[in-house]
Design brief:
Layout: H1 25-45, H2 55-64, H3 66-100, H4 102-115, H5 120-131, H6 135-159, H7 163-171, H8 176-213, H9 219-228, H10 232-260, H11 262-279
Length: 280
């Protein structure tokens, strides 16, 4: 009598693709392939180091200057995180104010949009003139970069609240505060986190721009000094650090979203499982 073994089960959780492969494998594999291709191309074509250093040279620069880069990185992370927090508070505050008053929204919303039409490289020198070379100008640059996606996303979330639920809470004698707490805020949280992910991805960019204009430390300053000395390998090393920190910040927002909205994570898992079943 032969025994029939059960087919292996495939984990189709949100951390896996429909084929059972962890979701981090495809991007890491593509990145590794690009690194190898760049290394081979640069070596074969004998590209000058100051034009395009080989990835191995960038890695050597990263390791050789690890202590210096670590000091600049700590400064940039501090600026990015504090600026992101300030921008989030400002964005949520403006969104709540605009959602509570139609005339105020009509007056503020165009100004919020116009504020993003002015490049940060133009505003940053003005902040330095107004507030000096301390950390405040850099924090303002990050806050202004971060508040816009948070404000726009939160306004959209507050405006798209379920009107039936709002009417129900009001019919039961609920006050404006109770409507906001039990209906508007929970309904706006998914939109808020969407805007916060965008803001987190921009935070390091804002910090680096602020450090270019005026700072005594930070990756922006390190980049500028490396550029002035034509140390392209050091520039690429700093860019890699900036990109890695940006990914970590966005990942932290994703983790915070899963903790604050567990039901949304469950719904996504069900949708992905259904998609995987249909693919099989």
């Amino acid at each position: 009598m032969t025994t029939r073994t059960a087919p292996p089960t495939v984990d189709r959780s949100p951390q896996h693709t429909s084929s059972g492969m962890p979701t981090w494998v495809p991007p890491i594999g593509l990145l590794a392939a690009l690194v190898v291709l760049t290394e081979v191309t640069v070596r074969l074509l004998d590209v000058p180091d100051y034009v395009m250093p080989a990835p191995s040279e960038v890695a050597a620069a990263l390791v050789g200057n690890a202590e210096v880069i670590a000091g600049h990185t700590a400064s940039t992370i501090t600026t990015a995180v504090l600026g992101l927090i300030a921008g989030t508070v400002l964005g949520v505050g403006l969104a709540v104010a605009m959602s509570a008053s139609a005339p105020l929204r009509a007056a503020l919303y165009p100004l919020v949009v116009v504020s993003q039409s002015i490049p940060m490289v133009v505003l940053a020198p003005l902040f330095v003139v107004w507030f000096g070379f301390g950390p405040l100008p850099r924090l303002l640059v990050v806050a202004l970069v971060a508040f816009f996606p948070v404000a726009v996303a939160t306004v959209s979330g507050l405006s798209s609240a379920d009107r039936d639920q709002v009417d129900l809470v009001r019919a039961m004698g609920g006050s404006r505060r109770e409507v906001t707490r039990h209906v508007l805020v929970p309904g706006a949280l998914p939109s808020l986190f969407t805007g916060l992910k965008v803001a987190a991805s921009y935070a390091m960019f804002g910090a680096v721009v602020g450090e270019w204009i005026g700072a005594s430390s930070g990756l922006g300053l390190y980049l500028e000094r490396s550029r002035a000395s034509f140390a392209t390998d050091q520039m690429f090393a700093a860019v890699l650090v900036i990109a890695a920190i940006s990914v970590v910040l966005v990942g932290l927002v994703f983790a915070l979203e899963r903790a604050a909205l567990p039901w949304q994570a469950a719904e996504r898992a069900q949708r992905r499982a259904a998609t995987a079943r249909s693919a099989w």
